[in-house]
């Protein structure tokens, strides 16, 4: 899954599981396809399961070539993901086959060794891997009801962002790499035309994105197309080459003659065909789509890893908001001299002294916060990752249309990157900046994801994927943990923590409101203005994200609540035997697992500690 802000950014369809990298920097093991396929079944003893995982992982890499680049596999660098009805039918057939084989292994293992060699019993690690593999496949199958390929378009999910992500990843160190890149740019119009065909198919069946998201996407794409070619992000792979360098000349020609005309066609379809039919008002959420109700049910299950109704989650969010409102009143009286909720939020939202002055200050504060957290972390974790983390500004083309920050996972000897939005810096609060770095980098996303990626005996799909509720729940959990770690310097920092907690609690209310209760965008914005300290421009961007990425926002608060509950139960059961570093290590030690598996792992750890082990 993609986990984006506060969370992680990954390419392509935002419902796809994408946590990517290999085990940290340096030469390491074989980075080619053969080596990656061996790592696909790392730690797996069951022969049939190991073979299934290798086949599935090769399939994943071949049909997601940009993802393959991120994990250091370059066998598919000349291609794009296949689109269209035939490609989707083939993918469904492959997924069905993998799922059937996985269930057969599960059934055979349950029958015992007498069922035959292919169905021999599984050890505990293999059983965990198989359970997670089946859950991932079942989730992918269930969410096909959404048909996102036919309507999902946003500032973070469109034809241009596919190309820009590629441009950012490519290193042109050899002629073959330049040739592969040229091949991709040359074939990009065919990819765009496939996008257009899919969107027109959806439009003909009443499947279309919402109006505001489409309008913002059109504006972003048109701004990019208006950028002079030599200043375009599309030339990022050759930006350091001389203007007469043959590779730069060829790529510039392809951008001018192939890419720009294709994107121009694409934008015209969004603007002239989709926008007039786009969803708005009470139909802005999934409820405005013919597949909406079934889709939302599947997405809730996917993102929180267990079945819950929209009504349950909505009420949970309202209860959390009521609790946090009371905390705002108490902390506001101490830090700001007023216990009135509206006055606290207004002060946080409008006092210029609480905001940054310029973009450089935003970025510098992010770096300082990251370094302070890195220094404190060893006292709270028995194991920390080797992979480094960097701070970078969100690219200019994207910054006005996206959230306040996101984390991009390491890939192919690249560090993890905490991207901070420095656009309109006077709207970026100082009091939220420290907790933001905690969530996105250390001990939040970077720590959790890098530990997962560096697991030596976990198969690739576990190191490179996982459940949203675990990833985002962990990052939100660390926002309060950071106070215990001594990382907040004042009650203003703690108001930032409270603001973020309110923000995530409001997501439970707003996401379910939009997609299950017929809320309008305006209702969602007003609710968040009344219960969070986020600036209005950030709230508008956030609501647009929830509209275009249904269900993902539910995972944060739901996962945090579960982690806090598990920790409280462990502390109560173990008393003086409780070890916070040990608790964190067992939580993070198997990757981003589902909540049922996490509960079992923590329960077994508590039992072992209680027995004196």
Description:
Pfam families: DUF885. InterPro entries: DUF885. This is DUF885 domain-containing protein. The protein has helices at residues 33-39, 47-63, 65-70, 85-111, 124-142, 159-169, 175-204, 211-226, 246-274, 292-304, 310-335, 341-350, 359-376, 430-440, 445-453, 460-463, 468-484, 491-516, 521-531, 536-548, 555-574, 580-588, 595-610, and strands spanning 8-9, 389-393, 405-408, 416-420. It has 613 residues and is mainly α. The protein folds into three domains: 33-108 and 123-146, no CATH class; 159-278, no CATH class; 301-558, no CATH class. Helix 5 (124-142) runs antiparallel to helix 10 (292-304), helix 7 packs parallel to helix 9 (246-274) and helix 21 runs parallel beside helix 23. The longest helix has 30 residues, at 175-204. Residues 1-30 and 112-119 have low confidence and may be disordered.
Task: Write a compact overview of the structure shown.
The protein has helices at residues 33-39, 47-63, 65-70, 85-111, 124-142, 159-169, 175-204, 211-226, 246-274, 292-304, 310-335, 341-350, 359-376, 430-440, 445-453, 460-463, 468-484, 491-516, 521-531, 536-548, 555-574, 580-588, 595-610, and strands at 8-9, 389-393, 405-408, 416-420.
Rounded to an integer, what's the Rg over CA atoms?
Answer: 24 Å
- Largest pleated sheet: 4 strands, mixed
N-C termini distance: 36 Å
Query: Can you give the mean pLDDT?
Result: 90
Uncertain runs: 1-30, 112-119
What would you call the shape? globular
Task: Tell how many strands the DSSP assignment holds.
Answer: 4
- The class by helix and strand makeup works out as mainly alpha
- The strand order across the widest sheet is 1-3-4-2
Number of helices: 23
Number of individual domains: 3
Strand content: under 5%
Q: Percent of residues in helical segments?
A: 55-70%
Q: What is the N-to-C order of secondary-structure elements (H for helix, E for strand)?
A: EHHHHHHHHHHHHHEEEHHHHHHHHHH
């Amino acid at each position: 899954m993609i986990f984006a802000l506060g969370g992680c950014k990954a390419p392509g369809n935002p419902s796809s599981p994408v946590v990517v990298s290999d085990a940290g920097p340096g030469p390491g093991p074989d980075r080619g396809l053969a080596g990656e396929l061996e790592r696909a079944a790392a730690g797996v003893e069951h022969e049939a399961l190991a073979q299934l995982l290798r086949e599935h992982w090769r399939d994943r890499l071949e049909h997601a070539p940009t993802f393959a680049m991120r994990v250091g596999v370059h066998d598919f660098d000349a291609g794009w993901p296949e689109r269209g009805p035939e490609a989707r039918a083939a993918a469904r057939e492959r997924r069905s086959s993998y799922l059937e084989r996985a269930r057969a292994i599960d059934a055979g293992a349950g029958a015992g060794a007498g069922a035959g060699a292919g169905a021999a019993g599984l050890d505990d690690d293999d059983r965990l891997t198989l359970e997670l593999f089946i859950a991932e496949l079942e989730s992918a199958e269930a969410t096909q009801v959404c048909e996102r390929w036919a309507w999902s378009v946003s500032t973070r999910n469109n034809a241009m962002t596919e190309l820009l992500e590629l441009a950012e990843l490519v290193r042109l160190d050899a002629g073959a790499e330049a040739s592969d890149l040229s091949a991709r740019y040359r074939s990009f119009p065919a990819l765009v035309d496939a996008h257009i065909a899919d969107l027109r198919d959806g439009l003909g069946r009443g499947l279309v994105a919402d109006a505001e998201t489409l309008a913002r996407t059109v504006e972003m794409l048109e701004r990019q197309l208006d950028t002079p070619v030599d200043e375009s992000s599309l030339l990022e792979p050759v930006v350091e080459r001389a203007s007469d360098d043959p590779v730069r000349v060829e790529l510039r020609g392809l951008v001018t003659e192939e890419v720009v005309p294709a994107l121009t066609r694409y934008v015209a379809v969004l603007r002239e065909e989709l926008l007039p039919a786009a969803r708005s008002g009470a139909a802005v959420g999934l409820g405005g789509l013919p597949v909406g109700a079934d889709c939302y049910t599947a997405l809730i299950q996917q993102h929180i890893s267990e079945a819950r109704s929209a009504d349950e989650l909505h009420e949970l969010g309202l209860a959390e908001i009521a609790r946090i409102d009371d905390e705002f009143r108490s902390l506001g009286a101490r830090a700001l001299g007023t216990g009135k909720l509206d006055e606290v939020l207004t002060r946080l939202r409008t006092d210029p002294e609480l905001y940054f002055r310029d973009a450089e200050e935003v970025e510098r504060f992010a770096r300082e916060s990251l370094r302070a957290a890195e220094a404190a972390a060893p006292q709270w974790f028995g194991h920390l990752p080797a992979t480094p983390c960097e701070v970078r500004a969100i690219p200019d083309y994207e910054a006005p249309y996206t959230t306040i920050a996101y984390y991009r996972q390491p890939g192919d000897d690249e560090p993890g990157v905490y991207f901070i939005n420095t656009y309109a810096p006077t709207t970026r609060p100082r009091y939220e900046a420290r907790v933001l770095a905690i969530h996105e980098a250390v001990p939040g996303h970077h720590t959790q994801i890098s530990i997962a990626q560096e697991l030596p005996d976990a198969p690739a799909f576990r190191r490179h994927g996982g459940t949203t509720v675990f990833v985002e729940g962990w990052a939100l959990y660390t926002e309060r943990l950071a106070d215990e770690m001594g990382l907040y310097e004042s009650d203003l920092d703690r108001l930032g923590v409270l603001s973020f907690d309110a923000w995530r609690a409001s997501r439970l209310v707003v996401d379910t409101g939009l997609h299950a209760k017929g809320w309008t965008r305006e209702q969602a914005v007003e609710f968040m203005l009344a219960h969070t300290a986020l600036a209005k421009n950030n709230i508008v961007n956030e609501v647009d994200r929830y509209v275009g990425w249904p269900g993902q926002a539910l995972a944060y608060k739901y996962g945090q609540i579960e982690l806090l509950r598990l920790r409280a139960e462990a502390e109560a059961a173990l008393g003086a035997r409780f070890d916070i570093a040990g608790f964190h290590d067992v939580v993070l030690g198997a990757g981003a697992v589902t909540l049922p598996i996490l509960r079992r792992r923590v329960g077994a750890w508590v039992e072992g500690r209680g027995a004196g082990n």
